């Protein structure tokens, strides 16, 4: 198969999972740039200019909370999931399982 | 002097609400600084200035980032409204431009303006109107796109959800559209040629343009021919819009209209009054064998021939439909 074609579809598939991956990672408090690197290592394609606004949006929706850590020389904003965020993550992972099962039945 | 990072952060946050701005700016600064450190750790040879530049290039257009924070769209009219937008644009243009242009042309002509003036002002009117319509319709849709509930707002504009009733009729005759367009274009070219031979004739005499057709005909005959061309074009449009292809009624109308159009041409050609005598003299200076009678005979035969052929074709297709 054409590598570009495969790459394009894989990217589309993973794009929708960035929120799940971010919520999963943020069960431990993490700041923006570190989260970006962890997601990139795990193979989730997300640009900084998408992720930073996304974190703000999720915080506004009440699934993330944030706190400034000023103990180090460079103050950073640490995000972590709220109780709502944890519930959302569970719901999304359940859906993922359902999708996986459904696709398996379709084959 | 401010650093590139300062300028970038300012550009990305200046449109945000006051209460968010400082917080977003501080976070963005830290993020950029982290990225610069990472770039430098990977490529120590770059130096801090180049590393900073690279980090900012990666982050991309600050306006895009600002739009991301504000949640505002990065398009004028989005996919939800686009079909309605195009429909509205087409609908308004198709109705308003020809109507207003034709009205203006008639008023100007009645006002006694020359043919060149009428054509020029009508063309300018059509152009200006098209630009104005495109601008205002686009502006209205761009504003709706930026409202809280674009779909509901669009209904207020009278361009609500798509409805199956608005589907266009399928033309009975598949070739109908192409045929109608071809015929209208041909009629337009004919009308343009009549104007062209008068306004920019290739013939000159004593430093003045010499029209090919007798200018005296403008007192009655040529305007009549132009009006008949418009009527023929209207017939083509009506026939296509009816979507039933050729019927006996259309074939009869086609024969009658063709006769109306051919009659003045045949009459003028038979009497040898079509060509401008000055133009004939001018041509004969370069080509002594030029005989205006031959030209008139050819025009006469062509007019009759086209009329007969077109009428027969109409009846033939009405019968086979």
Shape of chain A: globular
CATH H-level superfamily title of chain A: Winged helix-like DNA-binding domain superfamily/Winged helix DNA-binding domain
Which residue ranges of chain B are poorly predicted, with pLDDT under 50 across at least 5 consecutive positions? Answer: none
Give Rg of chain A in angstroms: 16 Å
Helix content of chain B: over 70%
Characterize the structure shown.
The complex is a heterodimer of chains A (about 110) and B (about 325). Chain A has a three-stranded antiparallel beta sheet. Chain A has a single domain (about 5-105), classed as Winged helix-like DNA-binding domain superfamily/Winged helix DNA-binding domain (Arc Repressor Mutant, subunit A, Orthogonal Bundle). Chain A has helices spanning about 5-15, 20-25, 30-40, 50-60, 85-105; strands at about 30, 65-70, 75-80. The radius of gyration of chain A is 16 Å and the shape is globular. Chain A is α+β, with helices and mostly antiparallel strands and about 110 residues long. Chain B is mainly α and about 325 residues long. Chain B folds into three domains: about 5-70, no CATH class; about 80-165; about 175-320, no CATH class. Chain B contains twelve helices and two strands. Chain B has helices at about 5-15, 20-40, 50-60, 60-70, 80-110, 115-145, 150-155, 175-200, 220-240, 250-270, 275-285, 290-320, and strands spanning about 205, 210. In chain B, helix 1 runs parallel beside helix 4 (about 60-70), helix 9 packs antiparallel against helix 10 and helix 10 (about 250-270) runs antiparallel to helix 12 (about 290-320). The mean pLDDT of chain B is about 85. The interface of A and B includes residues 33, 52 and 76 of A.
């Amino acid at each position: 198969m054409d590598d570009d074609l495969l790459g394009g579809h894989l990217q589309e598939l993973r794009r929708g999972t960035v929120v799940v991956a971010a919520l999963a990672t943020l069960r431990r408090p993490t700041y923006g740039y570190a989260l970006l690197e962890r997601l990139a290592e795990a193979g989730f394609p997300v640009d900084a200019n998408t992720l930073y606004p996304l974190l703000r949006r999720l915080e506004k929706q009440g699934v993330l909370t944030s706190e400034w850590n000023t103990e180090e020389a460079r103050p950073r904003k640490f995000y972590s999931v709220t109780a709502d965020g944890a519930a959302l993550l569970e719901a999304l992972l359940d859906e993922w399982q359902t999708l996986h099962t459904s696709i398996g039945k379709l084959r | 002097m401010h650093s590139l990072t300062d300028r970038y952060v300012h550009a990305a946050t200046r449109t945000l609400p006051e209460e968010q701005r400082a917080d977003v700016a501080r976070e963005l600064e830290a993020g950029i600084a982290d990225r610069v450190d990472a770039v430098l750790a990977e490529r120590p040879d770059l130096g801090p200035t180049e590393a900073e530049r690279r980090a900012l290039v990666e982050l991309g257009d600050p306006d895009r980032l600002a739009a991301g924070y504000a949640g505002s769209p990065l398009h004028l009219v989005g996919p939800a409204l686009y079909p309605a937008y195009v429909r509205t644009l087409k609908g308004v243009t198709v109705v308003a431009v020809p109507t207003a242009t034709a009205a203006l042309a008639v008023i100007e002509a009645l006002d006694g303006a020359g043919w060149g003036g009428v054509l020029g002002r009508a063309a300018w009117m059509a152009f200006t109107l098209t630009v104005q319509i495109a601008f205002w319709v686009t502006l209205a849709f761009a504003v709706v796109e930026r409202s809280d509930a674009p779909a509901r707002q669009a209904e207020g504009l009278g361009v609500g959800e798509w409805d199956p009733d608005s589907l266009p009729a399928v033309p009975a005759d598949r070739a109908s559209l192409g045929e109608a367009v071809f015929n209208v274009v041909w009629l337009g070219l004919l009308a343009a040629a009549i104007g062209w031979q008068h306004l920019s004739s290739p013939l000159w005499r004593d430093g003045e343009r010499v029209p090919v057709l007798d200018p005296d005909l403008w007192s009655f005959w040529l305007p009549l021919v132009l009006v008949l061309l418009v009527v023929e074009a209207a017939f083509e449009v009506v026939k296509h819009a009816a979507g039933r292809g050729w019927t006996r009624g259309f074939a009869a109308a086609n024969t009658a209209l063709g006769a109306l159009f051919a009659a003045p041409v045949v009459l003028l050609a038979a009497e040898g009054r079509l060509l401008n005598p000055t133009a004939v003299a001018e041509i004969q200076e370069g080509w002594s064998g030029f005989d205006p009678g031959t030209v008139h005979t050819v025009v006469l035969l062509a007019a009759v021939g086209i009329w007969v052929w077109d009428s027969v074709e109409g009846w033939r297709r009405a019968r086979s439909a």
